[in-house]
Protein backbone atom coordinates (compact mmCIF):
# COMPACT_ATOMS: atom_id res chain seq x y z
CA UNK A 1 0.00 0.00 0.00
CA UNK A 2 1.33 3.42 -0.97
CA UNK A 3 1.43 6.40 1.38
CA UNK A 4 -0.26 8.88 -0.92
CA UNK A 5 -2.45 9.02 -4.03
CA UNK A 6 -2.92 12.26 -5.94
CA UNK A 7 -6.02 12.21 -8.15
CA UNK A 8 -6.11 14.95 -10.78
CA UNK A 9 -9.07 15.12 -13.20
CA UNK A 10 -8.01 16.71 -16.48
CA UNK A 11 -10.17 18.08 -19.25
CA UNK A 12 -8.52 20.21 -21.96
CA UNK A 13 -5.77 21.53 -19.68
CA UNK A 14 -2.83 20.91 -22.02
CA UNK A 15 -1.26 24.32 -21.37
CA UNK A 16 -1.04 23.85 -17.61
CA UNK A 17 -0.09 20.17 -17.22
CA UNK A 18 3.70 20.45 -17.55
CA UNK A 19 3.89 23.36 -15.13
CA UNK A 20 1.52 21.63 -12.72
CA UNK A 21 3.61 18.47 -12.66
CA UNK A 22 6.80 20.47 -12.16
CA UNK A 23 5.23 22.10 -9.10
CA UNK A 24 4.08 18.72 -7.80
CA UNK A 25 7.60 17.31 -8.17
CA UNK A 26 8.96 20.27 -6.22
CA UNK A 27 6.50 19.65 -3.37
CA UNK A 28 6.58 15.84 -3.59
CA UNK A 29 9.94 14.81 -5.09
CA UNK A 30 10.19 11.25 -6.47
CA UNK A 31 12.64 10.19 -3.72
CA UNK A 32 10.96 12.22 -1.03
CA UNK A 33 9.20 11.47 2.24
CA UNK A 34 6.05 9.98 0.69
CA UNK A 35 5.79 6.86 -1.43
CA UNK A 36 3.23 8.36 -3.80
CA UNK A 37 1.38 7.80 -7.04
CA UNK A 38 -0.09 10.48 -9.30
CA UNK A 39 -3.28 9.56 -11.16
CA UNK A 40 -4.16 11.86 -14.03
CA UNK A 41 -7.74 11.21 -15.18
CA UNK A 42 -7.97 12.41 -18.79
CA UNK A 43 -11.70 13.07 -19.03
CA UNK A 44 -12.04 12.85 -22.81
CA UNK A 45 -9.83 15.85 -23.61
CA UNK A 46 -9.92 17.08 -27.20
CA UNK A 47 -6.61 18.96 -27.01
CA UNK A 48 -3.07 17.63 -26.49
CA UNK A 49 -3.58 16.74 -22.82
CA UNK A 50 -3.15 13.01 -23.35
CA UNK A 51 0.05 13.29 -25.38
CA UNK A 52 1.55 15.64 -22.78
CA UNK A 53 0.64 13.22 -20.02
CA UNK A 54 2.35 10.41 -21.94
CA UNK A 55 5.51 12.51 -22.20
CA UNK A 56 5.40 13.30 -18.48
CA UNK A 57 4.94 9.62 -17.68
CA UNK A 58 8.30 8.85 -19.33
CA UNK A 59 10.01 11.16 -16.84
CA UNK A 60 8.13 10.12 -13.68
CA UNK A 61 7.29 6.47 -12.95
CA UNK A 62 4.75 7.55 -10.31
CA UNK A 63 2.34 8.74 -13.00
CA UNK A 64 -0.68 6.62 -13.89
CA UNK A 65 -3.00 7.75 -16.68
CA UNK A 66 -6.65 6.84 -16.89
CA UNK A 67 -8.23 7.97 -20.15
CA UNK A 68 -11.95 8.23 -20.92
CA UNK A 69 -13.00 8.04 -24.60
CA UNK A 70 -15.35 11.00 -24.06
CA UNK A 71 -16.05 13.62 -21.43
CA UNK A 72 -17.80 11.89 -18.52
CA UNK A 73 -17.69 14.68 -15.95
CA UNK A 74 -15.60 15.35 -12.87
CA UNK A 75 -17.70 13.18 -10.55
CA UNK A 76 -17.15 10.03 -12.62
CA UNK A 77 -13.48 10.90 -13.09
CA UNK A 78 -12.95 11.19 -9.33
CA UNK A 79 -15.01 8.06 -8.62
CA UNK A 80 -12.82 6.07 -11.03
CA UNK A 81 -9.72 7.49 -9.41
CA UNK A 82 -10.98 6.46 -5.97
CA UNK A 83 -11.61 2.95 -7.27
CA UNK A 84 -8.11 2.54 -8.74
CA UNK A 85 -5.91 4.45 -6.29
CA UNK A 86 -3.67 2.61 -3.81
CA UNK A 87 -2.65 5.24 -1.28
CA UNK A 88 -3.57 5.43 2.40
CA UNK A 89 -4.05 9.19 2.02
CA UNK A 90 -5.90 10.63 -0.96
CA UNK A 91 -5.40 14.10 -2.40
CA UNK A 92 -7.74 15.55 -5.02
CA UNK A 93 -6.45 18.46 -7.06
CA UNK A 94 -7.68 20.36 -10.11
CA UNK A 95 -5.35 20.67 -13.09
CA UNK A 96 -5.90 24.39 -13.77
CA UNK A 97 -3.07 25.62 -11.45
CA UNK A 98 -5.44 27.78 -9.39
CA UNK A 99 -4.79 25.72 -6.27
CA UNK A 100 -1.18 25.81 -5.11
CA UNK A 101 0.37 22.30 -4.72
CA UNK A 102 2.45 23.84 -1.93
CA UNK A 103 -0.62 23.60 0.31
CA UNK A 104 -0.70 19.79 0.06
CA UNK A 105 1.93 19.04 2.73
CA UNK A 106 0.42 21.35 5.41
CA UNK A 107 -2.98 19.76 4.75
CA UNK A 108 -1.54 16.25 5.11
CA UNK A 109 0.01 17.29 8.41
CA UNK A 110 -3.44 18.30 9.70
CA UNK A 111 -4.66 14.73 9.41
CA UNK A 112 -4.53 12.83 12.68
CA UNK A 113 -6.58 10.38 14.73
CA UNK A 114 -9.39 12.92 15.10
CA UNK A 115 -9.23 14.72 11.72
CA UNK A 116 -10.29 12.56 8.76
CA UNK A 117 -10.63 15.11 5.96
CA UNK A 118 -9.06 18.51 5.33
CA UNK A 119 -10.93 20.71 2.87
CA UNK A 120 -9.25 23.62 1.16
CA UNK A 121 -10.68 27.10 1.79
CA UNK A 122 -10.18 29.65 -0.98
CA UNK A 123 -10.58 32.52 1.47
CA UNK A 124 -9.27 35.10 -0.99
CA UNK A 125 -10.69 33.65 -4.17
CA UNK A 126 -9.39 34.73 -7.58
CA UNK A 127 -12.47 33.90 -9.63
CA UNK A 128 -15.19 35.91 -11.43
CA UNK A 129 -18.43 36.78 -9.62
CA UNK A 130 -20.54 34.21 -11.48
CA UNK A 131 -18.47 31.48 -9.79
CA UNK A 132 -18.03 33.04 -6.35
CA UNK A 133 -21.64 34.18 -5.69
CA UNK A 134 -23.28 30.73 -6.17
CA UNK A 135 -20.50 29.15 -4.11
CA UNK A 136 -21.06 31.62 -1.26
CA UNK A 137 -24.78 30.82 -1.30
CA UNK A 138 -24.26 27.04 -1.24
CA UNK A 139 -21.75 27.27 1.62
CA UNK A 140 -24.04 29.61 3.57
CA UNK A 141 -26.90 27.12 3.26
CA UNK A 142 -24.71 24.22 4.37
CA UNK A 143 -23.37 26.04 7.44
CA UNK A 144 -26.89 26.97 8.56
CA UNK A 145 -28.64 23.67 7.82
CA UNK A 146 -25.87 21.32 8.91
CA UNK A 147 -23.57 21.57 11.90
CA UNK A 148 -20.53 21.67 9.60
CA UNK A 149 -18.45 24.83 9.86
CA UNK A 150 -16.80 24.67 6.43
CA UNK A 151 -16.49 27.78 4.26
CA UNK A 152 -15.64 26.23 0.88
CA UNK A 153 -17.09 22.74 0.52
CA UNK A 154 -16.59 22.78 -3.28
CA UNK A 155 -12.84 23.45 -3.31
CA UNK A 156 -11.03 21.02 -5.59
CA UNK A 157 -8.08 20.55 -3.20
CA UNK A 158 -8.96 18.06 -0.48
CA UNK A 159 -6.88 15.64 1.60
CA UNK A 160 -8.49 12.71 3.36
CA UNK A 161 -8.02 9.18 4.64
CA UNK A 162 -8.64 6.31 2.28
CA UNK A 163 -11.33 4.74 4.48
CA UNK A 164 -13.71 7.63 3.74
CA UNK A 165 -14.29 6.65 0.11
CA UNK A 166 -15.52 3.22 1.19
CA UNK A 167 -18.51 4.74 2.99
CA UNK A 168 -20.36 6.39 0.11
CA UNK A 169 -20.83 6.56 -3.65
CA UNK A 170 -20.88 9.62 -5.88
CA UNK A 171 -23.83 10.29 -8.19
CA UNK A 172 -24.78 13.14 -10.49
CA UNK A 173 -22.25 15.90 -9.85
CA UNK A 174 -21.80 15.25 -6.15
CA UNK A 175 -18.02 15.61 -6.22
CA UNK A 176 -18.66 19.11 -4.86
CA UNK A 177 -20.04 17.69 -1.64
CA UNK A 178 -17.50 15.03 -0.66
CA UNK A 179 -16.93 16.77 2.74
CA UNK A 180 -20.68 16.83 3.36
CA UNK A 181 -21.07 13.14 2.52
CA UNK A 182 -18.09 12.29 4.73
CA UNK A 183 -19.63 14.34 7.57
CA UNK A 184 -22.91 12.45 7.32
CA UNK A 185 -20.92 9.20 7.37
CA UNK A 186 -19.52 10.14 10.78
CA UNK A 187 -16.10 11.58 9.94
CA UNK A 188 -14.53 14.76 11.31
CA UNK A 189 -13.86 17.55 8.82
CA UNK A 190 -11.65 20.60 9.10
CA UNK A 191 -10.27 23.15 6.61
CA UNK A 192 -7.07 24.85 5.53
CA UNK A 193 -6.76 28.33 4.05
CA UNK A 194 -5.24 28.09 0.56
CA UNK A 195 -3.08 30.27 -1.60
CA UNK A 196 -5.64 30.58 -4.39
CA UNK A 197 -4.35 31.86 -7.72
CA UNK A 198 -6.00 33.38 -10.78
CA UNK A 199 -6.44 31.13 -13.79
CA UNK A 200 -3.45 31.39 -16.13
CA UNK A 201 -4.48 29.24 -19.09
CA UNK A 202 -7.69 28.48 -20.92
CA UNK A 203 -11.20 29.02 -19.58
CA UNK A 204 -13.23 27.50 -16.80
CA UNK A 205 -15.31 24.48 -17.81
CA UNK A 206 -18.07 25.50 -15.41
CA UNK A 207 -20.51 28.36 -15.71
CA UNK A 208 -23.47 29.83 -13.87
CA UNK A 209 -25.75 27.13 -15.32
CA UNK A 210 -24.23 24.57 -12.96
CA UNK A 211 -25.81 26.41 -10.00
CA UNK A 212 -29.24 24.69 -10.26
CA UNK A 213 -27.49 21.32 -10.56
CA UNK A 214 -25.55 22.10 -7.41
CA UNK A 215 -28.74 23.00 -5.54
CA UNK A 216 -30.44 19.75 -6.58
CA UNK A 217 -27.39 17.69 -5.59
CA UNK A 218 -27.27 19.50 -2.25
CA UNK A 219 -30.95 18.79 -1.58
CA UNK A 220 -30.38 15.14 -2.41
CA UNK A 221 -27.40 14.82 -0.06
CA UNK A 222 -29.13 16.70 2.75
CA UNK A 223 -32.20 14.48 2.44
CA UNK A 224 -30.23 11.24 2.35
CA UNK A 225 -27.78 12.39 5.02
CA UNK A 226 -30.41 13.55 7.49
CA UNK A 227 -33.17 11.03 6.87
CA UNK A 228 -31.58 7.92 5.36
CA UNK A 229 -32.11 6.02 8.62
CA UNK A 230 -35.47 7.59 9.53
CA UNK A 231 -37.50 8.85 6.53
CA UNK A 232 -40.65 8.84 8.68
CA UNK A 233 -39.30 11.92 10.49
CA UNK A 234 -39.47 13.93 7.26
CA UNK A 235 -42.57 12.53 5.56
CA UNK A 236 -44.39 11.88 8.82
CA UNK A 237 -43.56 15.32 10.20
CA UNK A 238 -44.72 17.15 7.08
CA UNK A 239 -47.75 14.90 6.79
CA UNK A 240 -48.75 15.45 10.42
CA UNK A 241 -48.52 19.25 10.07
CA UNK A 242 -50.59 19.24 6.88
CA UNK A 243 -53.11 16.85 8.43
CA UNK A 244 -53.47 19.04 11.53
CA UNK A 245 -54.03 22.20 9.46
CA UNK A 246 -56.81 20.44 7.55
CA UNK A 247 -58.26 19.00 10.77
CA UNK A 248 -58.33 22.39 12.51
CA UNK A 249 -60.03 24.04 9.53
CA UNK A 250 -62.61 21.26 9.41
CA UNK A 251 -63.16 21.54 13.17
CA UNK A 252 -63.79 25.28 12.81
CA UNK A 253 -66.29 24.67 10.02
CA UNK A 254 -67.97 21.89 12.00
CA UNK A 255 -68.63 24.26 14.90
CA UNK A 256 -70.29 26.65 12.48
CA UNK A 257 -72.35 23.80 11.00
CA UNK A 258 -73.65 22.94 14.50
CA UNK A 259 -74.97 26.51 14.72
CA UNK A 260 -76.76 26.27 11.40
CA UNK A 261 -74.12 27.51 8.92
CA UNK A 262 -74.09 25.71 5.56
CA UNK A 263 -70.48 24.71 4.84
CA UNK A 264 -70.51 22.29 1.90
CA UNK A 265 -70.22 25.05 -0.68
CA UNK A 266 -67.42 26.91 1.12
CA UNK A 267 -63.92 26.64 -0.43
CA UNK A 268 -62.45 26.12 3.05
CA UNK A 269 -64.40 22.88 3.37
CA UNK A 270 -62.90 21.42 0.18
CA UNK A 271 -59.43 22.62 1.12
CA UNK A 272 -59.64 21.04 4.60
CA UNK A 273 -60.63 17.67 3.12
CA UNK A 274 -57.76 17.84 0.62
CA UNK A 275 -55.26 18.75 3.36
CA UNK A 276 -56.39 15.85 5.55
CA UNK A 277 -56.09 13.39 2.66
CA UNK A 278 -52.72 14.75 1.55
CA UNK A 279 -51.38 14.70 5.11
CA UNK A 280 -52.47 11.10 5.53
CA UNK A 281 -50.77 10.20 2.24
CA UNK A 282 -47.50 11.82 3.37
CA UNK A 283 -47.55 9.84 6.61
CA UNK A 284 -48.25 6.67 4.60
CA UNK A 285 -45.27 7.40 2.33
CA UNK A 286 -43.07 7.76 5.40
CA UNK A 287 -44.27 4.43 6.78
CA UNK A 288 -43.66 2.71 3.43
CA UNK A 289 -40.16 4.23 3.29
CA UNK A 290 -39.46 2.88 6.79
CA UNK A 291 -40.69 -0.55 5.71
CA UNK A 292 -38.44 -0.57 2.62
CA UNK A 293 -35.49 0.65 4.71
CA UNK A 294 -35.90 -2.18 7.20
CA UNK A 295 -36.37 -4.80 4.47
CA UNK A 296 -33.58 -3.86 2.04
CA UNK A 297 -31.06 -1.58 3.78
CA UNK A 298 -27.83 -3.16 5.09
CA UNK A 299 -26.91 -2.55 8.69
CA UNK A 300 -25.21 0.83 9.16
CA UNK A 301 -21.78 0.70 10.78
CA UNK A 302 -20.39 4.08 11.85
CA UNK A 303 -16.63 4.65 12.10
CA UNK A 304 -15.36 3.74 15.56
CA UNK A 305 -12.30 2.90 17.62
CA UNK A 306 -12.30 -0.03 20.04
CA UNK A 307 -10.40 0.67 23.25
CA UNK A 308 -8.82 -2.44 24.72
CA UNK A 309 -8.42 -2.85 28.50
CA UNK A 310 -5.35 -0.95 29.64
CA UNK A 311 -5.32 1.36 26.61
CA UNK A 312 -5.48 5.09 27.23
CA UNK A 313 -8.49 6.78 25.62
CA UNK A 314 -7.22 9.50 23.33
TrEMBL record:
Its EC number is 2.4.-.-. The keyword Ribosomal protein does not apply. The keyword Transmembrane helix applies. Residues 5-167 form the Glycosyltransferase 2-like domain. One of its GO terms (molecular function) is glycosyltransferase activity. The chain crosses the membrane at residues 233-259, 271-293. Keywords: Cell membrane, Glycosyltransferase, Lipopolysaccharide biosynthesis, Membrane, Transferase, Transmembrane, Transmembrane helix. It holds the Pfam family Glycos_transf_2. It comes from the Bacteria. Gene3D superfamilies: Spore Coat Polysaccharide Biosynthesis Protein SpsA, Chain A (3.90.550.10). This is Glycosyltransferase. The lineage of its organism: Bacteria, Bacteria division CSSED10-310.
